């Protein structure tokens, strides 16, 4: 005769359904990047060539091989981040080209009729890397220059070359750069 409790399993031990609800702490999760590098090195060992090109091919193949079962690990941030970073780079390149054309038109137009302003852009991101990246992307875009970040890191002050509507300018900067930066750094 056994002591069986339907809630706890045999002899008071946890049942199989309890094991399914146990959450793995973040420190115990598999570091997918390290595994990707190890697999890339394994690829180089298997092919017998340790060139940079062969390591890159091994890294891409390992990335694809690890992407297939990524849902088993529960978190696929590692696989989303490169695409988010590429999207941010594409957005920056587009804004760089568009704003360079706009600045060229403003400067070449007779009379220099534009209104510069200093705009206080409220920051949603509080991470140093996010704030730095946002400020640098703003400064690298022609027609805008980041001046300072407030002491409490809640506001970025930006000089704009031609501002018709300061509120629309703030929304545009946040939508164009800050939102994709936050997604890329998640």
Biggest pleated sheet:
3 strands, antiparallel
**Average of per-residue pLDDT values:** 82
Overall body shape? elongated
| Uncertain runs | 15-19
What is the β-strand count? 5
Distance between the termini: 54 Å
With strands numbered from the N-terminus, the spatial order across the biggest sheet is 3-5-4
Portion of residues in beta strands equals 5-15%
Radius of gyration: 26 Å
Overall number of domains: 2
Protein name: Multisubunit sodium/proton antiporter, MrpE subunit
Organism: Rhodovibrio salinarum
Family: Belongs to the CPA3 antiporters (TC 2.A.63) subunit E family.
GO molecular function, one term: monoatomic cation transmembrane transporter activity
Describe the structure.
- Its main location: membrane.
- GO terms for molecular function: monoatomic cation transmembrane transporter activity.
- It is found in: Cell membrane.
- There is one protein chain.
- With 186 residues, the chain is mainly α.
- The protein has two domains: 72 residues, no CATH class; 104 residues, no CATH class.
- The strands form two sheets. The protein has a three-stranded antiparallel β-sheet with strand order 3-5-4, with helices on one face. A two-stranded antiparallel ribbon has the order 1-2.
- Strand 1 and strand 2 form a beta hairpin.
- The longest helix is centred in the middle third of the chain and has 32 residues.
Structure in a nutshell:
By secondary structure, the chain is mostly helical. 56% of the residues lie in helices and 12% in strands. Strands 3-5-4 form a three-stranded antiparallel sheet, with helices on one face. Strands 1-2 form a two-stranded antiparallel sheet.
